[in-house]
Amino acid sequence: MDSTRAPVAFGRWDVPLLFGRLQQPEAAERLRSLASLCDLMRDPERLYRTVTGGFLEQLQDLLKDEDPSVRSKTCELLHLVTAHSIGRQAVLSSSLLPSLSQLLDDSSSSSRINALRALNCLALLPAGADALLCLVPKLMLKLQQQDGEDEDDGDDGDEEEVLLLSTISCCSRLDALPALASDGVSLLGRKLTRRSPEVRREAAASLMELSIPVEGKRQVCEGAVLPVLVGLLQDEDVDVRTNAAGVVMNVAIITAGKLRCLDLDVVPVLLDLLSKRLEEDERSKALVLYSLRALTALAEAPDGRRLLLQQLPLLARTTEARHPDIRRAAQTAVRVVTWTP
Questions:
Q1: Which parts form a coiled-coil structure per UniProt (predicted)?
Q2: Global confidence as pTM
Q3: 302-317: per-residue pLDDT in tens?
């Protein structure tokens, strides 16, 4: 018998009895019960009985437990619950969210990471992102505190940073203004130069969401972020390139963005992405689409149209791509480039 886990009762008594054991005064016994519950939550039927049985509210006190291992294991249990849609909805309708968000300041890194994992799962739902919008300033503050920490802290530091960025990205997809008001463009821009490709990927994804409003486009143009993003168009990671191209596409819509991108000589870089026929890879479909749309926006400027007229054969070849979306985007780019008054 595994000494790290509490015994599991037979049949439908398994979940109720384990939750009942969470009230025991010994932290070791609470940990054993939590470990067994984490195992059971991997079974959809038991997870459903946990959610519909009203047991989640019993975790409220455990999130404030004196033992950091208990807090961490409770967050792990909630992460397993929020991995399913029905679990996310149950947590959102419960009173657990304030206590869970307070663990972002926990002294235990495992508690912080497990809490962030659960919050990140909640943010995948529009209702969850809406509920977490009030937390965006705090998430940005936690992200800023990561700047002062040594990048060599290990995988835990990177994972915490990635989770913060991912949650901010999900919330900003719903409303980018809270992150913009927290100096989001400048802060996220500093994350673009991190060694970890996961951090760069999520930072660029968050910036793509922040560059949708006009105010976000303006901030990206005025800061030192855009040159870094242009450099990331040649990153080794295809997702980093894709997200960077998405920001360039958004920024190139406004006049200041067009002029800034042309000054940074971004057209040859975008054309190089098209010449590699990356649309053959399904993962790179978005990269090609973003590149084409960015080139289309840049073609509205005289200097951009002049550069692209010289590369019209390449754009014409792209209109024969396999994906219908890419074909349509390429056809639009050709029409804009060849437009005459």
A1: none
A2: 0.91
A3: 999 999 999 999 888 8
